[in-house]
Design a protein that fits this description.
With 332 residues, the protein is of the alpha/beta class. It contains 12 helices and 13 strands. Helix content is 39%, strand content 28%. It is globular, with a radius of gyration of 24 Å.
């Protein structure tokens, strides 16, 4: 569904020191730096896949999505999305994709979302029967209710984002580019959006490419991740395999009977592994993956355990370690 080969986007950026003199000199002579926003990346995404597209700020994620959706022309490289070259912006291509950006909106501010939905029906030339059916499905999945008839300015951020998703999906696109779709939303609303994206993907077989700084979005939605840093691709593969490769250790979270954390602390938890956190009634201990069974058995025998769970390290820590390793390797 998506095929990217040697994708590159370079910008010429004018830089000058502050001050009036420098401003006047720049009128006659300017110096430019080349910013390599995207620097030769390759990947493919199959039909129906949900893929996380991750990286630190400035890594080139949004620039890449804009090139995949045809909003930006690449400096070099080849891109095919749903069988089309995005920069040509052909009608059939535009009907096959959608781009949702958490910091942008298409809803008309002083009119209810229903007016935007009607406008999009006309733009995409959606037959009335299909429009009514799709709208009913989206309203049900997103639990919009009567929100579609309220002026957009009266809706909360979460309510607006749900209506944005509905507006973006009325034409039933086969490829979804989601750029920070849950930014600024509370935990409950983030879960609602994640549930909806998963349902849409499963119901229509749509391909989803998601960028997000909320790692829970990625963990819940994306079995595969593509990771970029400084415009270059540094990982493409299974999320769980990445975690086991970069951080093969495990974390044992122990909750003590009657909240008796003091007794556990006196028992010297470091004999079980590295103590990451110790709170009243709970401790988090890091151990090597191959030592989990033994550590758990010793804890159960020696500590007043009420509950115990074994977890992978947080994805944030996995990515931070991956970026540090990548930059050490790339450094001269």
């Amino acid at each position: 569904m998506i095929d990217v080969r040697g994708l590159t986007k370079h910008y010429q950026v004018h830089r000058r020191p502050p001050g009036l003199g420098a401003a006047l000199r720049s009128v006659f002579r300017r110096s430019y730096d080349t910013v390599r926003a995207v620097d030769g990346i390759d990947f493919s995404v199959g039909e129906g896949e949900r893929v996380g597209f991750l990286g630190p700020n400035g890594a080139g994620k949004t620039t890449t999505l804009k090139m995949l959706s045809g909003l930006l022309h690449p400096t070099s490289g080849d891109v095919l999305v749903a069988g089309h070259v995005p920069r040509r912006r052909e009608t059939e291509f535009l009907k096959a994709i959608t781009l949702v950006m958490g910091q942008k909106q298409q809803l008309l501010w002083d009119l209810p979302p229903a007016e935007t939905f009607a406008m999009n029906r006309a733009i995409y030339e959606i037959p009335r029967g299909q429009f009514d059916e799709t709208l009913h499905e989206l309203v049900t999945l997103l639990e919009l209710g009567d929100l579609v008839d309220k002026p957009t300015r009266q809706l909360s951020l979460g309510e607006r984002m749900k209506c944005e998703l509905a507006a973006a999906l009325l034409h039933r696109p086969r490829v979804l580019f989601l750029d920070e779709p849950t930014i600024g939303l509370d935990v409950s609303m983030q879960a609602t959006v994640r549930k909806f994206v998963r349902s849409y993907n499963e119901r229509f077989g749509a391909t989803v490419v998601l960028t997000s700084h909320y790692m829970e979005d990625v963990v819940q939605l994306c079995p595969r991740v593509i990771i970029v840093d400084r415009g270059r691709l540094i990982h493409d593969g299974d999320l769980r395999a990445l975690t086991h490769k970069v951080r093969p250790d495990k974390r044992i979270v122990v909750r003590f009977a009657n909240g008796d954390g003091a007794a556990a602390a006196r028992g010297d938890l470091s004999r079980f592994g590295q103590v990451i956190a110790l709170e009243d009634g709970q401790a988090t201990i890091q151990v090597a993956a191959e030592e989990v069974s033994g550590a758990v058995a010793r804890m159960l025998a020696a500590l007043p355990v009420a509950d115990l769970t074994v977890e992978d390290p947080p994805l944030e820590e996995v990515l931070s370690e991956l970026f540090r390793t990548s930059r050490r390797v790339a450094a001269p």
